[in-house]
Design a protein that fits this description.
The chain has a single domain (4-155), classed as SMI1/KNR4-like, CATH 3.40.1580.10. 29% of the residues lie in helices and 16% in strands. The chain is built from 5 helices and 6 strands, in the order αααββαββββα. Strands 1, 2, 3, 4, 5 and 6 form a 6-stranded antiparallel beta sheet that branches. Strand 3 (97-103) and strand 4 (108-113) form a beta hairpin. The model has no long low-confidence stretch (mean pLDDT 91).
Length: 156
């Protein structure tokens, strides 16, 4: 397991997020992979095994990382509901991408592209829900999280 995940958890604890949930089980990860017909790259798998999100808690920059049970394809997250009837123009602009975190109560989302290849790079995108799709923030989930750990402002 990559040492960065312990550093992330320590960072969250030092930020006042004391109740970080335990990591996901292999069964939860395999159920996600089976449901969506994808394979998590090793870095993302190790992340979920170390910290299964932030348990609904926000860091000091208002980022909330989701559990693997909450992660879903972008097009399923950006749907109108009974509270929000907004149509998201970029709902289908992120193929094979899955939301794993949000910023400031979903002002925007963070999504990782997944395939059936466990050796994939899994780039991370900012999902805006606007007419112009968000940009690629990093080439891999590990790179995204390293930038986040270095300075959470780097992912804004």
């Amino acid at each position: 397991m990559h040492l960065i995940w312990n550093k992330i958890i320590t960072f969250w604890h030092q930020s006042g997020m004391e109740k970080i949930p335990p990591g996901a089980t292999d069964e939860c990860i395999e159920a996600f992979e089976l449901r969506y017909q994808v394979k998590l790259p090793l870095d993302l798998r190790d992340y979920f095994k170390a910290a299964n999100g932030t348990g609904g808690l926000w860091d000091q920059n208002f980022n909330c990382f989701w559990s693997i049970e909450q992660v879903k394809p972008v097009h399923l997250e950006l749907v109108p509901n009974s509270i929000n009837q907004y149509h998201y123009p970029d709902q289908f602009s992120y193929p094979n991408s899955f939301v794993f975190a949000d910023h400031c109560i979903s002002c925007w989302l963070y999504a990782v592209r997944l395939t059936e290849d466990p050796l994939q790079m899994a780039p991370v995108y900012r999902v805006t829900g606007d007419t112009t799709p968000g940009e690629k923030l990093s080439e891999s989930f590990l790179d995204f999280m390293q930038r986040y750990l270095e300075n959470p402002d780097l992912i804004l």
